[in-house]
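Table S2 (text version). Query chain:
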Amino acid sequence: MLNKENTTIGFIGTGVMGKSMAGHLLNAGYSLIVYNRTKSRADELIAQGAVWKDTVAEVVSQANVVITMVGYPQDVEEIYFGQDGIISNAQAGTYVIDMTTSTPSLARRIYAESKNNGIHAVDAPVSGGDIGAREARLAIMVGGDASAFEALLPIFQIIGKNIQLLGDSGAGQHTKMCNQIAIASNMIGVCEAIVYAEKAGLDPNTVLKSIETGAAGSWSLSNLGPRMINRNFEPGFYVKHFIKDMGIALDAAKEMGLLTPGLELAKSLYDELASKGEENSGTQALYKLLAGEV
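Corresponding structure-token output:
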């Protein structure tokens, strides 16, 4: 049984969301080892008591739970399958949790290779952005064995609130695609509504208060709408990462023979936004494209 006394957590990827997630685990009393490609992004955690390691191999050789939260599927593949990666260096019995939004097929490959090496692997992408990460109320979508899920649940409960086991390996990633598909079209509507309010001469803050509790209400409207109005386009979730996610969802939908016109439109708009130099902005920067500000 995993508990704080016998668990050392390795956290790989301390970016916008990972840093907050790792911080909650540290504050909860877990021993924490960290690695990030850019060490300065882990400085705050190190100052709070986390132990820095220079390589992925060093992290996993000393941790019995390893969490990865990186950018792209190719990063995940390198971290797990590289010569100095997780599967080659983790001890049998280690639990590995990929919380990156990645492909279902890669999640299944990680699970299969891990199982061959006596390692317990789950895919557990999250939703909630920088706010959810900071406030420890992420939605966590888990794919994998029920026994691994039960063992890791106390850790998940430190960083999230809505935690669900969705099925076998890959199910967490498929669920995250459902999440991103729903967000994609919604973001267009949120941006258009705020641009419309402003063009009509209305106070957009008052309009937001009026519509966010009705049928139009959504997380994006309530949390990203105010950022658009205040011209705050700092990333809680990067445009470039959202484009990556939509690409994964489109590929998966094509494999299943599904029509996703809303998703296709959203990706085309975000591709245009990125081409105008906004790839490192937050997803709410789509407002700028629809308002004619880029």
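Notes on Table S2: The chain has a mean pLDDT of 97. The chain has two domains: 8-168, 174-291.
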